[in-house]
Design brief:
This protein is mostly beta strands and about 375 residues long. About 10% of the residues lie in helices and about 45% in strands.
Length: about 375
């Protein structure tokens, strides 16, 4: 990305997933950064001087790798592994340590803490799928971090540090991307930010994004006969009303669709930085995002390559809002950081369990024919 004090921009056209080409239009490259400063121990230090296992990516590296989501940077953290079955369904492990015996994160908090700036964004439903844009750096800290980061940090911590408002300097930028998935649909992305001083000692930074992940799974036409209603024990008669029992046939003609597992993500972030004096700074922020996922992100080999047969609409809507306040200052020889936040998250989802109904009916009919 080319960076200027007035404005910056980038446009990218690429083919993803078994891609064959990439065309990038960009301005002059940034100068090489020799030293990375991290705050893994709650203070600014050179990455080379931190006596813990840590991997960090600064802004330049994040842009070079075209990172915009957790899956993009997680694969570059050597001690971290993750298991993802689609949006809102990612389990994270440091050094192979999981939360429970079967790695199920639906009951207890995960063993890896995820922080956005100074605020934890780890929930029972997993960490927030924060869109990675206008980010200063990402840190991955392996090993127990309970002393510095509290609960849900038994095996490690992932920190996402955003770019803060800059005083006395206007700055703006954008990114555009269009991508095509082989055997799938077309996706696109727009991101932008503005840094605007509002006074000598205050500035605001606004960030927004919209991302469309292309679908690549087809829901194909099929039908099924549910046999449980003609169990021998009933003798072909409905025990409730005495009528005839007939098998039920159901098809999915109204849900047939190519590339039906697309994902839309859109949101915004705002931060206000106020220097109260030379020693004290207050930074309130607010972040809101909604992610709408359709279909499923795995396929059924019996239906074909990258194909499934689903009988009910499937979707997952994940929306959250976070408000945070960070106060930084000095008291004598000590640095003080006070961080507080409010987080509200809501996930609405609907999944097709027709497969279970079909096989339960078949099993009941078989059992009834033996013992009925």
């Amino acid at each position: 990305m080319a960076k200027f004090h007035a404005a910056t921009g980038r446009a990218t056209i690429k083919a993803a997933l078994l891609a064959s080409s990439m065309l990038t239009i960009a301005g002059p490259a940034l100068a090489q950064v020799d030293e990375i400063t991290v705050t893994a121990q709650k203070k600014s230090e050179s990455l080379q001087d931190v006596p813990i296992s840590i991997q960090a990516f600064n802004t330049q590296k994040l842009e070079e790798l075209e990172i915009s989501a957790f899956d993009d940077y997680a694969k570059f953290l050597p001690s971290l592994s993750f298991q993802s079955t689609g949006p809102n369904s990612t389990n994270v492990y440091f050094r192979g340590v999981v939360s429970g015996g079967d790695g199920n994160h639906s009951a207890s908090l995960p063993s890896v803490g995820v922080y956005l700036d100074e605020q934890p964004v780890t929930t029972i439903l997993g960490f927030l799928p924060v869109h990675v844009y206008d980010i200063e750096r990402v840190e991955g800290i392996a090993g127990p971090q309970g002393t510095l980061y509290g609960a849900s940090a038994q095996s490690g911590v992932v920190r996402i540090i955003t770019n803060k408002p800059k005083l006395g300097e206007f700055e703006a930028g954008y990114d555009l991307e269009v991508n095509a998935v082989q055997h799938g649909d077309v996706g696109y992305q727009f991101e932008g930010y503005v840094n605007q001083p509002v006074s000598e000692n205050a500035a605001i930074r606004l960030v927004g994004w919209y991302k469309k992940d292309a679908g690549y799974i087809d829901n194909v036409l099929t039908g099924r006969i549910f046999p449980g209603t003609i169990a021998p024990a009933f003798g072909g008669v409905n025990p409730l009303n005495g009528g005839a029992l007939n098998p039920i046939f159901k098809d999915n003609a109204n849900l047939v669709e190519d590339n039906f597992n697309d994902v839309e993500t859109y949101g915004a972030r705002a931060a206000l930085k106020i220097d109260l004096n030379e020693n004290w700074t207050i930074t309130p922020t607010i972040l809101a995002q909604k992610q709408e996922s359709n279909g499923i992100h795995f396929y059924d080999p019996d239906s074909g390559d990258l194909k499934v047969s689903r009988f009910e609409p499937e979707f997952s809507n994940d929306k959250f809002i976070q408000g945070a306040m960070t106060i930084e200052g000095k008291i004598g020889d000590f640095d003080l950081v006070v961080a507080s936040s409010y987080l509200r998250r809501q996930i609405d989802s609907n999944y097709d369990y027709t497969d279970y109904a079909y096989y339960y009916d078949a099993l009941y009919q078989y059992y009834d024919s033996l013992y009925g």
